[in-house]
């Protein structure tokens, strides 16, 4: 298990203001050695395949075994004894850890909503996209994955510390609920390697995508449309995708979404979703996906009106934003999944390279495989500032992984690199080229390490 944020920061936070001479020389050494190296990773998220726009429809069409590009999406059913009650959705963040909504797994919430007895044992069953070979001839599920430890009444399941039973009487209460409506749980068996987990978001992700009129992607495990009995969990869990539009809809939440007080805590879109889509992620459209928010609430979602794909403006959907910078309790539960969030500061020099070293420790017989390098210029930059990321192996050899240029007028001074196949590196170096014009400028370097 990875260390929690407070301990991690004490070990890994390196500001260039306090770098020793040897460390400064080592940065210069690595940068000098990169003169003839080319990037070895294609880490530009904009270069990823863009999914075509299928238009407005009720979280459809159906996805099947050919759609493992959406394999980060999982479906959940709730079961008491042999009786299935309802459904939710979730998102793979690693091969065996899932992010979902707190109200999908919180025992008190589920017992209250479904009026269960105190001694009723409620269990969760999980399905992956494309598991069509484990359905019977009528399309019914014949196999599910359990939450690890669930059989022993010790499930590996962690709910956001600020989560509380929903009180949704007005827009402010709905927003307050959504921003804490998170949970993570561990699968009893890992997803196959071709199911690519979603990346967590950088500040660049929000700046670029949390924009009114932007179309994003949601994949959820809704009931089959047209089913008269939408609570029959033995029926096919049907994965469907939708293209909601950020800021569309005329609910009171829309006005709140536009206010700075709430903008970093929620996402708001027109409503295309159903009750079974709670816990699904709203993501970027390029692959691998970046998760921006988790589905918390939707107007009419529980009133049997979701099957027709109603896109009327008075309906809405509300997501809790996966904003690690503003949500320390979310960072805490992600630590159970082995995900670290590191915060660093670098100051630009006019004479030499400056930077920060990020450890990639060996834990559970392996190193972290992925990371998001999250950059933001805190000081106003007169020109662009170049950041280079280097992977350093245990034997001292190193490789250039990519670079980005920060510009104050572009995406509010933010940029990101999404890196994979990092398990061969003992550490990463994020280094900044000297600049006479922007000498002394402060740059925030946050790193999200994912197994």
Which helices and strands appear, and what pairs or packs with what?
Blueprint: H1 5-12, H2 21-32, E1 73-80, E2 83-92, E3 97-100, H3 102-105, H4 107-113, E4 122-128, E5 145-146, E6 157-159, H5 171-178, E7 183-186, H6 203-209, E8 217-222, E9 238-242, H7 252-257, H8 260-263, E10 266-269, E11 281-283, E12 291-298, E13 317-321, H9 328-335, E14 340-347, E15 354-359, E16 370-377, E17 385-392, E18 398-406, E19 414-419, E20 427-432, E21 442-450
Antiparallel strand pairs: 1-2, 1-4, 2-3, 3-7, 4-5, 6-7, 8-9, 8-11, 10-13, 11-12, 12-13, 14-21, 15-20, 16-19, 16-21, 17-18, 17-20
Protein name: Trypsin-like serine protease
Keywords: Hydrolase, Protease, Signal
Signal peptide: 1-22
Characterization of the model:
The chain has 451 residues and is of the alpha+beta class. The protein folds into two domains: 5-36 and 339-450, Jelly Rolls, CATH 2.60.120.510; 52-329, Thrombin, subunit H (Beta Barrel). Helix content is 14%, strand content 29%. Strands 5-4-1-2-3-7-6 form a seven-stranded antiparallel beta sheet. It has a six-stranded antiparallel beta sheet with strand order 9-8-11-12-13-10, sandwiched between helices. The chain has a four-stranded antiparallel beta sheet with strand order 14-21-16-19. The termini are close together. The relative contact order is 0.18. The model is unreliable at 1-22, 42-61, 224-235 and 307-313 (pLDDT under 50).
